[in-house]
Amino acid sequence: MTKRIIHIFADTPHHYKPMQQFFEQQCRPDAEQLFWVKTPESIPNFVNYKNNAELFALLESTAKEDQIVFHGSFDMHVWKKLLLSSVTKRCSCVLWGAELYRHTRRKRTIKERVVHVLHALVINRYKQVFALNKGDAKLAQRVLFKRNVKVLPYPLIGMKVEQDREQLTSEKPLKILVGNSASASNNHIDALNKLAHLANENIEIIMPLNYGGEQSYIDEVVKHATTLFGDKFIAITEMLNKQDYDKLLNDVHLTVFAQHRQQGLYVAYAMLLMGKPMFLLSDTSSYNYLTELGFEIYKTDEVASMSYSELNNLISKDNNRNPDLMNQHFTEQALAPKWRNMLEQLHG
Fold this sequence. Notes:
Layout: E1 4-9, H1 13-26, E2 32-38, E3 47-49, H2 52-60, E4 67-71, H3 76-83, E5 91-95, H4 98-101, H5 110-123, E6 128-131, H6 134-143, E7 149-151, E8 174-178, H7 188-195, E9 203-208, H8 215-229, E10 233-236, H9 242-251, E11 254-256, H10 265-273, E12 278-280, H11 285-292, E13 298-299, H12 300-303, H13 308-315, H14 322-329, H15 332-345
Parallel strand pairs: 1-2, 1-4, 2-3, 4-5, 5-6, 6-7, 8-9, 8-11, 9-10, 11-12, 12-13
Helix pairs in contact: 3-5, 7-8
């Protein structure tokens, strides 16, 4: 029987579409690959399922030789059903990070503690478990009691870097990208407060608020940002296609993140590939992992004391090693052999 690997994705188009192309074009293991995604409508090159009942109907129809890879695993209702299914022993999982951080919060409810136990039980039945960086791998070992969690990052896929950079002038503002989504985990208000001292400078604060957050939270962030920066604040509330999103990332000069966990990898990798300054909280797994690899990353807490001219000097530095390190560690070409090896080992 033909070997098959089934990739299962959540409804995140900017992730599952590039990854499908990566697996088909750059990383083809010695096996047939199928791609499942949770969407209400069919999508070319994917099998879609609308709900968990349809997902498990698909899973139960698989052959016993089929190997299954969950890209992210967030839904406790899926975990509960997997614990009762023999399919689980053929499953592997790539942890995104958010699944882990929920178990580290203080003052969790009884329900949240039960969910934690449930997660640990199902993770320990998986064939293989991967994290996107060393810090998250160690966290998975600690909070989910999984002994062998390997590190396998996602690649930066299809990012086009414009060769001609826009230079700052008296007419052109310093463009600062804050966060990557409307999710409250971005801690937008904290980041905005750290930039408040620049309110009278020639800047633009650009904030993607087009997915992942509650409207009440978005309204609060917009109000706070407008109070601080007036018309220098630009909220992006409409979904962008990849071409427009890449153009936005090419246009900004630096990025400030204030989330306490790994998040916004596409933005982070794009900044590093383009050699643009990026600020991360120093207690995050992303900061520790990237600096350990040699990347030049700035601490978010430091931006509060940096002047406009100091930030301008950062974006003008010529001795930036980040693009070379990106090509070495996180491009499709760098990671395709590692992903191919992982997928082929699933049938080993």
